[in-house]
Design a protein that fits this description.
By secondary structure, the protein is α+β, with helices and mostly antiparallel strands. It has helices spanning about 55-70, 115-120, 135-140, 210-215; strands at about 10-15, 45-50, 75, 75-85, 85-90, 95-100, 105-110, 125-130, 150-155, 160, 165-180, 180-195, 200, 205. The radius of gyration is 29 Å and the shape is globular.
Length: about 220
Amino acid sequence: MSTVTDREGVARLTRVARPTTSSGLMPPLRPARKREPPAATLPPQTGVARLTPKAAAVEQAAKAFRQVMGRFATGVTVVTTVERDTVHGMTANGFLSVSLRPPLVLVSLGRCKMNEMLPRSGRYGISVLSHEQQHFAAHFAAQKPSPVEPTFAWQGDLPLLEGSLAHLVCRVVDVHRAGDHVLWIGEVEYLDHRDDEPLLFYTGRFGTLREISGRTA
C-alpha cells in the first residue's frame, strides 16, 4: 500500500494584538518589560506560507495507481470519428456500458486529438478488437505502424474497423470532465457483433487470455 502524506494548502501567520489600556473598572494593564529576543530566535512574522507537494511523491503515487489499475484486465477498442472528411481513430480501453434503457456507453479520454474533434462531430464509433487485431491496437495507439492498412466498414457517416468483434455507433449526449480525463457518454444508435477471441489489455500490455495467463503463471 502506498501512502501519500504531502498536502497542498495555505497557512496564515498573524500577530496577536496586546491590549495596553482598559476602559472598565480594572486598572490599566502595565506594559510588559521589553525583552531582547535571543540571538537565535526569529521575530514573529505576518504572511502566507504555501505548502506544495513534492513532484517525486506525486509521480510515485501516480505510478502506484497505474500499477494497481493495470491488474484490471479490459478489452481493447478503437474509437473513431469523422470531421470534414478526415477519419481519426485512437485506441482506448477506458470504455464501459452505462445504461440499458436508454442504451448508453462511456469512453474516457485523456489529452488527445479526439477530445478536440468530438465537440464538433458529436458522434463516435466503437470497434471492439479481436485477438487478431493487436497490430491495429498498437497502430491507433501511435506505438507502431500496422503492417496491414486498416479498412473501415461505414455505418451511415461513421467508420468502423473491419474484422472487429463488435461495432457501436454513438451520439454524444453528455460530457463530464473528471481529473485529467473527459468522459464522453454516447447513446447507441447502431450495434452489431460476432463471436471470436477478444484482445485484452493487462499490466500495460496487449495479449490474448492465454498469453496473459502465461505471463502470470
